[in-house]
């Protein structure tokens, strides 16, 4: 009788753990993702000190979300965008590179290219732009002018 009761309790606890990890955490991550996306867009539309304050706040929140939800690519993209607002292009590039280990999308390659341009790494930026434009050819029109012909030649 005691064994049956113990087995029931263990099963209930395991069930609650599964529900928490399969439902509660993803729901929490999804809510955080939406809020952080909106706040990052807000920071992009701000100027000067306000943009920096919002971006720092966003970074604090998104780094916590990455710790809770390390397999959500969008959190890394949000972190990278906020690093770029703060002119921390090396950190942004690292976040984009991490995102690419989880998911390969043209906008990730493109944003990585822009971060590399800001760091003066034009050769590496061209490679990123080429990859992005192979996915979505019309992105060539958004490549920085001084690199556009080199990217076009490699496509």
Short characterization:
This protein is mostly helical and 155 residues long. It has seven helices and no strands.
**Secondary-structure element string:** HHHHHHH
Overall form: elongated
Tell me the number of strands. Answer: 0
The amount of beta strand, in percent, is: under 5%
Which regions are unreliable across 5 or more consecutive residues at pLDDT < 50? none
Tell me the radius of gyration.
21 Å
Number of helices: 7
The major pleated sheet works out as:
none
Compute the average pLDDT: 91
**Helix content class:** over 70%
Helix-strand category: mainly alpha
**Spatial separation of the terminal alpha carbons:** 72 Å
Give a verbal description of the structure.
There is one protein chain. By secondary structure, this protein is mostly helical. The protein is 83% helix and 0% strand. It has helices at residues 2-45, 48-68, 73-85, 89-102, 106-118, 122-135, 145-154. Helix 1 (2-45) runs parallel beside helix 3 and helix 4 runs antiparallel to helix 5 (106-118).
């Amino acid at each position: 009788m005691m064994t049956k009761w113990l087995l029931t309790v263990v099963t209930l606890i395991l069930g609650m753990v599964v529900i928490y990890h399969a439902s509660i955490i993803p729901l929490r991550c999804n809510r955080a993702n939406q809020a952080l996306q909106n706040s990052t867009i807000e920071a992009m539309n701000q100027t000067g000190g306000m943009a920096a304050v919002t971006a720092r706040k966003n970074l604090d929140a998104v780094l916590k979300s990455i710790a809770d939800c390390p397999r959500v690519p969008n959190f890394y993209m949000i972190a990278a965008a906020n690093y770029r607002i703060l002119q921390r292009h090396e950190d942004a590039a690292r976040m984009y590179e991490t995102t690419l280990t989880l998911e390969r999308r043209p906008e990730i390659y493109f944003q990585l290219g822009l971060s590399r341009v800001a760091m003066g790494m034009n050769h590496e930026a061209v490679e990123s732009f080429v990859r992005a434009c192979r996915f979505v050819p019309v992105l060539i029109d958004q490549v920085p002018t001084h690199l556009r012909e080199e990217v076009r030649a490699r496509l």
